[in-house]
Amino acid sequence: MKQLRVTNIQRGCVYDGPGVRTTVFLKGCYLRCPWCCNPETISFEKELFIDNSKCLLSKGVHSELCKLCQRNKGSNSITACPFGVAEETSRDYLPDELFHILLRDQSLYIESNGGITFSGGEPLFQSENLVSVLELLKEKGLHIALETSLIAPDQSLLLVNPFIDTYIVDLKIQPEMYLSDSNYQNEIKKHLMMIGGKSIFFRFVFVDSVMDYINEVKDWLSVMEINIIEILVCHNLGAKKYGKLSLANRDFTSSKEKAESFIDFLKDFGIASKILSI
Ligand code: SF4
């Protein structure tokens, strides 16, 4: 049976849909937003976080324990390092195994009207394998949310849609990459139509350049009849992860003050928004 590749399972989440939830971060994404704070979720391939600051050699210590390490021309892979220099970024789970892990907080979901949220990366990237877990969770009557950009093949969305109660749509309309690209915009529009009738929350990562294209952003939100949106102020807390993956990191950090100006601007056009402090 096919497995699901997961980077993190976070319990007790209160921002990823109604009530108290467990959020599952799935590996793999169709996009590559340069401000992504979880870069280990972008590629579907297995990867390692390498933390060179933990390596004894980098501190000039020549330990017996390091003698067999590849960094000492030995035969042991760096993954055998006893000091945690290499760490897998993901783990593969059989659907049944993941299902039983998610059931640990079943009573909490029921007490708080919460449930399970699948996020990423892009959870639709693993739609085919995800369906098996969704079926099991739905048999238990649990509430399921999906945090997605909706940038994915139609078939991936159609497969999971019957099991999803709430969508958290992470809107890709930032000027740097997405706002002027009609392909992205048409894809989002088409998929919003496909999930029409479900409960939908909209989210948006605020980057400074939005203020330079404020009218275009506002027009797009109005055309799509989006009248309430949660704002995440872009930060650079993922910088260390980029380093551990040997990826270039660009800092798009914005300020709460700038995001508040954006909120005021939207308010004048009847679009309510608030900053989500995660
Ligand atoms: S075993 Fe770990 S600490 Fe020692 S050289 Fe290898 S990576 Fe560095």
Automatic annotation (TrEMBL):
<dbReference type="InterPro" id="IPR001989">
    <property type="entry name" value="Radical_activat_CS"/>
</dbReference>
<dbReference type="GO" id="GO:0046872">
    <property type="term" value="F:metal ion binding"/>
</dbReference>
<keyword id="KW-0411">Iron-sulfur</keyword>
<dbReference type="InterPro" id="IPR013785">
    <property type="entry name" value="Aldolase_TIM"/>
</dbReference>
<dbReference type="GO" id="GO:0051539">
    <property type="term" value="F:4 iron, 4 sulfur cluster binding"/>
</dbReference>
<feature type="domain" description="Radical SAM core">
    <location>
        <begin position="15"/>
        <end position="272"/>
    </location>
</feature>
<keyword id="KW-0949">S-adenosyl-L-methionine</keyword>
<keyword id="KW-0004">4Fe-4S</keyword>
<keyword id="KW-0408">Iron</keyword>
<dbReference type="InterPro" id="IPR007197">
    <property type="entry name" value="rSAM"/>
</dbReference>
<dbReference type="InterPro" id="IPR034457">
    <property type="entry name" value="Organic_radical-activating"/>
</dbReference>
<keyword id="KW-0479">Metal-binding</keyword>
<keyword id="KW-0560">Oxidoreductase</keyword>
<comment type="similarity">
    <text>Belongs to the organic radical-activating enzymes family.</text>
</comment>
<dbReference type="InterPro" id="IPR040074">
    <property type="entry name" value="BssD/PflA/YjjW"/>
</dbReference>
<dbReference type="GO" id="GO:0016491">
    <property type="term" value="F:oxidoreductase activity"/>
</dbReference>
<protein>
    <submittedName>
        <fullName>Radical SAM domain protein</fullName>
    </submittedName>
</protein>
<dbReference type="Pfam" id="PF13353">
    <property type="entry name" value="Fer4_12"/>
</dbReference>
